[in-house]
Structure formats: C-alpha cells, structure tokens
Amino acid sequence: MIQNRLAVFGGGLFAFFLAAGALLLYLFGTDTYTVDGRVAGIQNEGRTLVVEHEKIPGYMPPMIMPLPVADSSMTAPLEKGDAVQFRLAVGDSASIIALRTLPDTAVARNPARTTTPIKSAADGGAQMLQQGDRVPAVLTLTNQAGESLQIGDYRGQTLVLTFIYTRCPLPTYCPLMSKQFAALQPQLRERYGEEAQLLSISFDPAYDTPQVLREYASKYTDRLDTWTFATGDSSQVERATGLFGVHAQKTGSEEITHNLTTALIGPEGHVRRLWRGNDWTPEDVRQAVAQVAEAS
C-alpha cells in the first residue's frame, strides 16, 4: 500500500515537474503579465476567451479582446460576466497560459469602459462603408514622404488597405497586420506589379508623423512603390476610420484601444471585401485580389 502511494505520489510529482518544465520552455523568451478582468465571451469551442480586462501596466491599456487559451478545458466552467485573473504570455503571439476565477467584487463591472473615445467620422453622420459601396475618391491622406494622396489616386489599381498605429503593443493586432502585409506584398508584386497596392493608415496622427512612418515602414519592407504608409490631420483620419468602421479609444498619451478592419478596393473604387478582426491570412487576400483581377 505504501509502495502504491509512493508510486502515485512519484508519478504526480513527475507530471508536475514535466508540466513546469514545459511551461518554463514556453515562457523562455516571452514576457508574462498577470491580468484581472471579466469574461466577455467564449469562442472557437472554448479555445478563445474574449476578456474585458483592466490596464496591464507597462504593456497595454484596458481593452475588450479575444485571446487564445493554452487548453480549452480552462474555459469550460466559465460564463459571461465571470470575474477572472489570467496569466498572459506575450512573445511572437499572445495567449492565456493560466486562469482562475475571482470573487465578483474583485473586478469592476466593466473594467475596460473607462476610456475616452477618439472622435470618429461615423459619429458625425458619415455612413460606414459596406461591401459594394464606392469609396470617396477625395478621401485625402498624407504618405510617409509627407506628400498628399487621395484614394482616387488608386483608381485603375487594386488596393488593399488596413489600419494601424506604430506604438501598438499587442503582437496579434497592428504588428500582425504589418507582418501579413509584408508576406503579401512580394506575392502581389510578382503577379500584378504596381497594379496591386497596399496601404497602411495610422489613426495616431499626433505621433505617427511621416518620419515615424518611414522608420516603421523600414522594419517591414524596402519597397514603398507598392506599399504606402499614411496618416493625415485629425479630420482626415477621423473620416477614414469612420468610413471603414474602425473604432479607437485613447486611454493615455501612448495608448489606444481599437478594433481591426482590412479592406479590398477594386480598380473602379468599390469595396470588394471587408475583413473584420485579425483572422485573415495573406492567402485569403491573395485569392480575393485574384478574383478581382479576373473580373476586371
């Protein structure tokens, strides 16, 4: 009996150290943060937890966002509105590696809703574009060289645009959008040359000056003939974000919470596809561009 207990104990101890070792290997080269928040939803059969979390000091502001979990069993007992504390590991991606529930009084009812919205053109009556709508040709921005550009300048070309800000700290948000564009650009160049263009629009014009955008661009591409980085004055940026349904909230001098929108605009200036969020791939966009090219 004693030997059996020792065997069970030894096996359990081995499993513990095995799991701990795997965790240490996983965490090597990553940053980790302990975060309090509330469950806002559960997606992908428990593999993704949508959390409304408090500010993560030194990393990011309060936000409502989907995060993958290390094991779907972690979300099984959870319900929307539950107060939770989780361990967020951030490296090339971000994911929840540990999670526990908290007393309801331990977390604010809406921990991410203490931010100040950035004025959006949608708030001023501009209608958000839908698939098939024509993008206003006079929508004006400023590129990384400090030169004025209009969306109408892309007439006759296929345009894929997305929204970023250069100080975005979350790997699965703006940095991922830029990495996806970096992977997409050579594919489009090889097939379509300058007839397919990429455009990254910053909604942080106060910080993302043309010089900052040039420096940011150099991290992802050395070919600015088919990939433009743009910003503009506040009214221009507000109009662009409003038209494409990008909602941003400024929570500090450097922190902006936001959603993600990527759009495909055909040579005639109509919205052909809209991707909301970050679950599209370069291949998805490449195929959509090919369909537009074949129909043109």
UniProtKB/TrEMBL annotation:
Query: Transmembrane residues, as ranges?
Result: 6-28
Keywords attached to this entry: Copper, Disulfide bond, Membrane, Metal-binding, Transmembrane, Transmembrane helix
Is Nucleotide-binding included in the keywords of this UniProt record? no
Q: Which domain of life is it from?
A: Bacteria
Which PROSITE patterns does the annotation name? THIOREDOXIN_2
Concerning SUPFAM superfamilies, the annotation shows: Thioredoxin-like
Q: Where is the Thioredoxin domain?
A: 129-294
Q: Name one GO molecular function term.
A: metal ion binding
Disulfide bridge positions per record:
C168-C174
Q: Output the Pfam families linked to this UniProt entry.
A: CusF_Ec, SCO1-SenC
Residues bound to Cu cation: C168, C174, H258
Please give the family membership noted in the entry.
Belongs to the SCO1/2 family.
Give the protein name, as stated in the record. Answer: Protein sco1
